Amino acid sequence: MLTLFLFLYTTGMPGFEEFMCTNSADCVTDCSPMFGLDCEMCLTEKGNELARVSLVDSDGECVMDELVKPPNRIINYLTRFSGITAAMLKPVTTTLRDVQVKLRKLLPSDAVLVGHSINNDLLALKLIHPHVIDTSLLYRREFGQRFKLKVLAETVLGRQIQTEERMGHNPTEDAVAALELAQYFIKTGPPSFFFFFFFISMRHQYKNSTCHILVWTREIELVQKLLCLYVLRRFADVLHTRGRKVSYIGKRSDIALNLCNQQWYNTDKEVRHEECTLPPDLQLIKQFRLTRSPTKNIN
């Protein structure tokens, strides 16, 4: 996608005249600074256009928060989501080009932009930048399903954003949340943040239940035990330390396979017998996978 934009921009294709490239280096390092980015849009005659942009540095400090006057007539301010009103934009004279120039000056050549579905923000800014982190992709589930920034902030960071009491989103707050989600991912890695998916699913499962608090507490305690046992370790490694082998269900081919001494079973009964011999800590995984109904007695 970036290559396509660069081609269209450099060849002067119609519709891409307003796009601008940042002064970015060819590559980044572990020491390259990260910046959180978030934009709010209004609906105009030409579609969604930029109305506000916020940029925060790697410490979460706001370095830019600008209201932008769309060049086309506004049809809907989308106040419920953007927080933008007609009164806010009335005295504004800042244009998209002004914002592009300012961002180009603010961002160092090795800057890494972080955002949630950041492709939408860059399209609104009509900005081409090669080094980005999209937190909606970092924390996506199987089959490409993505979590909302609000859900990830509450579950991973323990912070509530985009609350109903506020009128619209705060782009600075959202930019900080996206930045910290990326920093958390880099620090902990996939093996440990995986367990937060269980937190999310449990949160929705018991959301409207009277036993929500007690069940939620028990699930947290269980996941904490799992994290202590298996964080930064592959399940196969844990089995190896316990003297166990990888098990597969199915029929084995007559062809000899030398794949780490697999242990094969032909019936479910053999597998269930093996599960009964698991040590107590490994049985936690089996216990955690059980689906419990919030309407049942949990005592």
Q: Can you put this structure into words, describing what you see?
A:
With 299 residues, the protein is of the alpha/beta class. Helix content is 42%, strand content 16%. The protein has a domain at 2-188: Ribonuclease H-like superfamily/Ribonuclease H (Nucleotidyltransferase, domain 5). The protein is built from 14 helices and ten strands. Strands 2, 3, 4, 5, 6 and 8 form a six-stranded mixed β-sheet that branches. The protein has a two-stranded parallel ribbon with strand order 1-7. Strand 3 (47-56) and strand 4 form a beta hairpin. Helix 7 packs across helix 8 and helix 11 packs across helix 14 (280-289). The longest helix is centred in the last third of the chain and has 19 residues, at 212-230. Residues 210-216 and 281-299 have low confidence and may be disordered.
Element layout with pairings:
Layout: H1 2-10, E1 20-21, E2 34-44, E3 47-56, E4 62-67, E5 74-76, H2 79-82, H3 86-89, H4 96-106, E6 112-115, H5 118-125, E7 127-128, E8 132-134, H6 135-138, H7 149-157, H8 171-188, H9 190-193, H10 196-205, H11 212-230, H12 235-241, E9 247-249, E10 263-265, H13 268-276, H14 280-289
